[in-house]
Amino acid sequence: MVSWDRGSPRPHGRVALGIFRFQKSGRPMRPLSSFVLFVFLVISSASLAAPPNIVWIIADDMSPDTGAYGLANIRTPNLDTLSAHGRRYTRAYASAPVCSSSRSAFILGTYQTTTGLHAHDVENPQLLPAPYRHLPELLREAGWFVTNAAAPGTMRNGRMIKKGKTHYNFAHDPATMFDGDDWRQRRVGQPFFAQFQITEPHRPFPIPEVYDPAALAALQLPANYPEHPLMRRDWYAYLRSVEVVDQRVGAILEQLRAEGVLEHTLVFFFADHGRPMPWGKQWLSVEGLHVPLLIRGPGVAPAGLEQRLVSLIDLAPTVLTLAGLNVPAWMEGRPILGADFPQRGQLFAARDRCGDAADRIRAVITPDHVLVRNFFPAVSRLNWSGYKEASYPGMPLLRVLNASGRLDSLQGEWLKPERSALEFYDLKADPIGLHNRAAEQLRQPRIKELDTLMAAWIKSSRDRGALPDPATQPTMAQIQKDKRRDYQRAWKARLQKDEPTDAERLAWWEKAYGLAGR
User: Fold this and answer.
1) In this predicted structure, what is the pLDDT of residue 49?
2) DSSP letter string over 96-141?
3) Which pLDDT does position 20 carry in this prediction?
4) Predicted confidence band of residue 9 (pLDDT cuts 50, 70, 90)
5) What CA–CA distance (Å, rounded) separates 431 from 450?
6) N or C: which end of the chain has fewer CB within 10 A?
7) Distance (Å, rounded) from C-alpha 79 to C-alpha 47?
8) Within 10 A of 78 (CB to CB), how many other CB atoms are there?
9) What are phi and psi of 437, to 5 degrees?
10) Rounded to an integer, what distance in angstroms lies between the CA atom of residue 161 and that of residue 197?
11) Predicted TM-score (pTM) of this structure
């Protein structure tokens, strides 16, 4: 008999079952009994009629920082159990290192540079142009119950919230995009696609009132972060925020279990991009792009490990395939569950304007290397961002330490006023991509090869990043003016000064983290 698992594409409209059993030689044996065949067809028809439910659990701003991914000094039992009961992807990447650009890409299954949705947090979003249609619309049209909710227990300003984040760069009405915020309101037997949005570990982190001295001392900061009490406490707060993510995941899984649907539901956990740190979010780096991806459910082998390349734009076509629907030709992602895993030699990623920080960067990621092209090498990596300068204690810290000569050569490299046009990282020797090898002579053939691949992708995908902002958007000067006012208001409220120095801002952060007087 021929069979398929729930993770494979369904044979639309035809029964892919044989009425003969076959020996290893391929010669037919006796036909199945009528009763056995009848039972088999009934079971198979039921599986065709009842595709698995699908749940996306999406964390804000998180790298693969869980126990199952090998991080020490963190407690993530629910995520680790999810990993043990399903498949853990070790080479999953966002297509952009920032929220709205990445979310616009994975809800469409298409690179944000192809659709013109590449600028982060556009001020005047427009309707999607033809032929693009978002995943919730495609599923609702096919009869699925589609919801988007905040994770259980999410609070804002002291109040429980139910509405989930969307943050797309196209105009949309959540009231018509989704059937609601509770998948349990569906019709009996109706399959559902539920998104749960977890706001953590997006900044601001809840600053701990009490620190575990042993845990604080045991933290291992990445090599690109300076050893400093404020940096250590900020990292500690980030990890505690990841632990809140784990608690939210546990509540979602318990909700599914209590309703008796967990075993017939495919659960995806991932983050929209990497951690909110100076070398992470908004930077086209391994830290900004590398994300956790865990999948469990029918047809997914327990404790599976997948080391091949995956992009978040693969998730929408994966869901459509699981639902038995056609994947539109314009989708650039590929299904990752089923018989035909996309065997890729490379993925691509992009960073463009992020609020008031204009830039254009492209990357090609292979199993062994990352090549980054900076189209504006005269722009510093610490390109001014009102959001980062108001939210990241590491920004003034890095500049203060650099001014006093207290950063090592690796850390100081990021503060230079210019950067290389090309960056090349050897992921076998340097898994988190810290050491730029683009100047090494032996690397030139591979660099040229990857640069050619990137240029071909930019051309074939009609990358719109080189085009000016549409006329529907405010001017860059106006955007920068507005963002500067936001930054000034933040610091006026904190220090009664709208333009404090780096030293003044650093002192404020040290006090906020309980380090006053050091």
Assistant:
1) 52
2) SSSHHHHHHHHTTTS-HHHHT--SBT-SS-BPPPTT---HHHHHHH
3) 26
4) very low
5) 18
6) C
7) 28
8) 21
9) -110, 20
10) 11
11) 0.90
